Amino acid sequence: MGIKKSIMPKKSNYTIAFIVPICLILLIFFVLNIFPFGNKTVSADDMTIQYLSIFTYFKHNLFNIDNLLYTYSLGIGTNFYSVFTYYLLSPINLLTLLFSDQYMPIFFEVNILIDFGLISTTTFFYYQKSPLYKETENKVFWGLVFSISFSLCSYFIIYSISVMWLNAVVLFPIILLYFEKQLFVSDNNVPLYFIFLTLGILTNYYFGFIFLIFLLLYGIFGIIYLIAYRKITKARVKGIVNLIISTLLSISSSLFVILPSFSAQSEVSKVPFSLSIQRMYGIKQLLASSFIGANSGEAPLLGINILCLLGCLYFFCNFKINTKLKSIVLLFLLFLLLTSWVKTPYMIWHAFTLPNGFFQREAFLIVFVICSIAYFAFSQYPIQILSLSTSMIAVALIIWSVSCRFKLISLENLYLNLFLLFFVYILLIFYRYKNKGNLVLLTLIGTFCVALKSWRPVNTLMNLNSYVNVVKTTNEAIRNLKKQDSTFFRMGSNYQINMNDSLAYQYNGVTGYVSQLPDSMLDYLSALGYYQKHQWFRWTQYNNGSTKAVDSLLGVKWILNGNRNLMNKSNKISEFSTQNLATIQYPTKFKENKIQIKKNLTSFSMVIPLASTSLKSVKYDSMSNTFELLNKLFKCIYPNENMYFKNNSGRKKVNSDKIQLTIHCNSNGEAYIYIPTEKNELLPKVNISVNGRKVSNAFGENLNGENGIISLGSFSRGTLLNVELEGKNIGDKRILAYSENEKLLESLSKLSKKSLLFKKERSNLLLVTTNNNFVGKPLAFSIPYDKGWSISIDNKKVKSERYLGGLLGTEVPSGKHTIKLTYKVPYLRVSIIISLLSTIVFAFYVISDNSRRKNKEKDI
Q: Is the predicted pLDDT of residue 175 greater than 60, yes or no?
């Protein structure tokens, strides 16, 4: 008996698979008042904190490859290539060119909609083409149901802010399809498998690594399946060998992304890999994770249309499916769950460490397997009422247990889940008699419920109008500033959306937060007194600056001071915004709309002559006396005088929450206090006033708004300051009080520019010339020491050194010279060569294999 044709035109199937998820997401936008239906955006958490700025920077530098290799817009300079390869390689990102900076959040909405549509489409393509599924009358219908369900599972909803992951997952079903064709059919699909696997790795190498682990596990169980069914033939063995070779060549062809990126990542702190059988979550949390509104802790995000879970259990209850197949599938599913449950394999999934936030990143694979099992059960076999009823009762008991016994689902959500389960069961029975339309409608309703319940609370989503206003105002001020000053300089700000403002606004600064920032630079800037990281924090911020001398040393020349209205709007955008009150009192040079632009008159050149090279490294210790460390640093430049003088001070403890200090300034210049705190201690709010005038709300809810060093203002030597600090248990804290040597700072500023001419050609190429009056000495450059930098003097390569505790430098002889600094991404050149050779080898391998096939066919 022939197979009946699909009830839907073939070309329209892929259109439906693409359009339906997009329509459902737009419906969620409407319900949650997300643009274009309101003033909210999809942006939250890391999308606001990191991705908006990274993608804005990418848009501006797409045709300036040097700035995608190295940038001064993160910290005081860092390798950007690993950021570029992790976040930005998907071709979808070219759409950023269509959006202005202030409307970049809308790009992410478009990106997310495209991703959901494409994930559904490629999954449907897999279901229709996979050799594991026979042609049946219902194959198209169920393919649409489960591809749409998979694309809108809670994993993709919750992790949708990480668009670079979704961009990669789009390719996963296609990679798996050609993997299966080669493994189970020994079809000649090696070139397509190689191409799509390579594209998957290049789109996001981190998820490419996850794909590879899954393919390894799937391949092992696939071979077990072939052995169990006695399908191992000489042709199959050759197909498996071809699969292994093409996988290895795909990895090596992607090495120009993988090797430099993992090299850079090795500079970042992470939890070391360990052998452990520690459980990552409880079984009851796993049982809850598939249902709407469940509190599942850190169990895998398995929230899906309840039809998928019912179909998965139905597969194992269906007596028409043979026991051998059920056993292999069950073992594979349980093994996948086990790898997410036990610490060691869980760490392997996440590149041999624990993820920092966004737990169970591999969980979409478990969801995919569940959906595929359900698809197989419904598309390949007629519905059996007894098996279906058994499955329905089992799911109902799980829901009841999770809610009533484990208390992980509220009563309201219990009723919702049970209602959907019962309704699905009834419609599946109707489907048995060809009533398909109602089932499609219910599938969409169930999918919508899961998606809506999984979406982030609307109050965590970013306000679009506030973002537009702040970005537009700040960009205008910075553009006008750059017109007036074309030299290389760094900037600070007394307000910010988050730590990556310098990326978003295209300026050089000391702020930054990306996963690839090396710990050495973060520790160095913390030691110098900028945002002093506590606990696991992996960012640096300018905030109120460190001290005027440190600002000057690093070339911070201009400071943006926004008014209170601009600060408040920044606060509405991001949880990491700042409101800095105790800023150093730099003079205002001009105003731009709502922003005062202040100038540091003592900023150094990027090149710093040294008298001593003794300070090779500094150790960040939040409990140490940072002023004494800074004295050691500045004595490397001028050894005869201190930059900071300890002020005489008297201390009166009013009570445990209030102290009064009497400080006698021992130098002309800025006066500071420093409150040492343990590295794992986060101070509560501290109110600080000087001579009756409030200067700061430090710490507490404004944790990101103040560093340990707090400026009290600029005072003459001999001035008496009455300082009052009020905050919980502040009376028990040690307070350090110092004044800055303004005269010495002015002298060093002039010294840094004497006999030297600095010229910045590109971000990865710097030129410095000395004149005939230059006296030979070590020179430090205010960029972090990095093995990627090479230095030559008059075209002769010289040894680079680590000076001033962490800056790049070298010895320069007397007289006139040209000093050239060139940055090359470590391992990039060699990995490009290996990748090209691997691609060529694969091409020859395919050509020779095809030639052998043709010769064999001729002989036959």
A: yes
